[in-house]
């Protein structure tokens, strides 16, 4: 797994290539991390092979918008529409988004937790032209965090005298445990 500093180094390489190189595609193609580009309207216009491997699917030029993943979920298990993902937010807000974690569902049913690094791109006149995004697999650490959250929910469920609240907390714990297990099993087969 990449450290945050290694991830930032790859992103700097990508941004430098996009800014200064006529042959930016060959630079991005060689990066060992999933990286892709969207137009201002969200149309995915470029992706490297690492994106295909990460997403478990070949994106479709002209069809995929905002992200190369098949489906995205929050860490609490809620479906996140592509037009609400961090990449879409970065373009709308015209600023880099950092610190988000999401879970990608692949077409084969496997899941991978990731931290995106969506970064808007501007031309020489300061006009927004699109955005570049790098996806870093954080499945191991996210699996641990979800397992800890499940334990907290179970402790709260046992500590409350309200049956309805206890049942809700137990259901939440089961959801966290299942997602953590899904991430562990995907990481074990990768």
What do these coordinates show?
The relative contact order is 0.13. The chain folds into two domains: 4-137, PAS domain (Beta-Lactamase, 2-Layer Sandwich); 142-189. It has six helices and eight strands. Helix 5 (139-159) packs antiparallel against helix 6. The protein is an alpha+beta fold and 190 residues long. It has helices at residues 4-20, 24-30, 49-55, 86-93, 139-159, 163-189, and strands spanning 35-39, 44-47, 71-73, 79-80, 102-105, 111-116, 119-122, 128-137. Strands 1, 2, 3, 4, 5, 6, 7 and 8 form an eight-stranded antiparallel beta sheet that branches.
Write a concise keyword list for the protein shown above:
190 residues; alpha+beta; Beta-Lactamase; 2 domains; 8 strands
Strands, helices and their partners?
Blueprint lengths: L3 H17 L3 H7 L4 E5 L4 E4 L1 H7 L15 E3 L5 E2 L5 H8 L8 E4 L5 E6 L2 E4 L5 E10 L1 H21 L3 H27 L1
Antiparallel strand pairs: 1-2, 1-8, 3-4, 3-5, 5-6, 6-8, 7-8
Helix pairs in contact: 1-2, 5-6
In short:
The chain is of the alpha+beta class and about 190 residues long. It is built from 6 helices and 8 strands, in the order ααββαββαββββαα.
